Predict the 3D structure of the following.
Amino acid sequence: MSDVTYPARKPARPFFSSGPCAKPPGYAPEKLATESLGRSHRAKIGKTRLQYAIDLMREVLQLPETHRIGIVPGSDTGAFEMAMWTMLGARGVTTLAWESFGEGWVTDAAKQLKLDPTVIRADYGQVPDLSQVDFTTDVLFTWNGTTSGARVPNAEWIPADREGLTFADATSAVFAYDIDWAKIDVATFSWQKVLGGEGGHGVLILGPRAVERLESYTPAWPLPKVFRLVSKGKLAEGVFKGETINTPSMLAVEDAIFALEWAKGLGGLEGLQARSNANAAALDKIVAERSWLGHLAEDEAIRSKTSVCLTVEGADADFIKQFAGLLEKEGAAYDVAGYRDAPAGLRIWCGATVDTADIEALGPWLDWAYASLKK
Ligand SMILES: Cc1ncc(COP(=O)(O)O)c(C=O)c1O
């Protein structure tokens, strides 16, 4: 390509960040309910709104009654580390890693908790051979690798009669894929991803076997108050009814409620998935039409439909920085550079809060940035 054609039309909402992600269409801060602000989160209004957020999440996720769902501190990291620190150490541990965040959990397990985990890795764009996983151990994995665009295809590789627990960091997976909850003992996410909510709070989902672990096992290490889920040998059930461990941001809660009501209005989980699938398909068409663009995750069965990572022919980190910088300067696309630790490339969020027309409008802008830099 040699022509530098300035595209006629910009994406209406040029927000393609993989976290915090685009706000839901139609979002405006003045549309948020504010009655709970400036009040105690333990007053009736605060507890009611927290419980409402929990009820909406359960409904939109189609989470079965077997699983508890609670709001905890520290975004997805807080929720996942809370699960690691409170439940690991009872048996062997296997950690799966195919990108930066999975590697973070390996570091936690090996260097902080000193658990000597079995580590199964794959390169960026791939997932390891999941049939090799030993389910007599606790197994930690990232459902959707946000920094590599590679995900597990489903939960079929997890046996129903496993001995260990499964811990899924599902922050860029929930609301986008079908999750077989019977195979998941612990899952975590943050509102800032597929819902286009705010960071700050994490969501912790516990299946019955995780609760059993919490009530029957005490880790050898001390636990800070923000990680404590058990009181006098019993699960702190209040956490799953809106009685948060410490003070939440009610503004973040109201923001999440806005997103969840939007999601419900779309038809819930299926509505969100349909939007994400359409976005990923529109981006895939753009890639297919250009010889200089490719998917980092070549195998479609494990390719993300949320954080889609693209290779750019001949690009290094500096080229990508300039590429993303040009698009940002034009107001055509924000935050499309790949993650700093990933191979140099682009990352385009295709989650439900992005409009398909905006993905479609992105194609000519990618051409323009590429041609401008090549010139
Ligand atoms: C897979 C994965 N895990 C963990 C995190 C950290 O999330 P948070 O910043 O919400 O704690 C992210 C953020 O992008 C992520 O993509």
Remarks:
- Residues 19, 75-77, 101, 142, 146, 169, 171-172, 190, 192, 199 surround pyridoxal-5'-phosphate (CB under 6 Å).
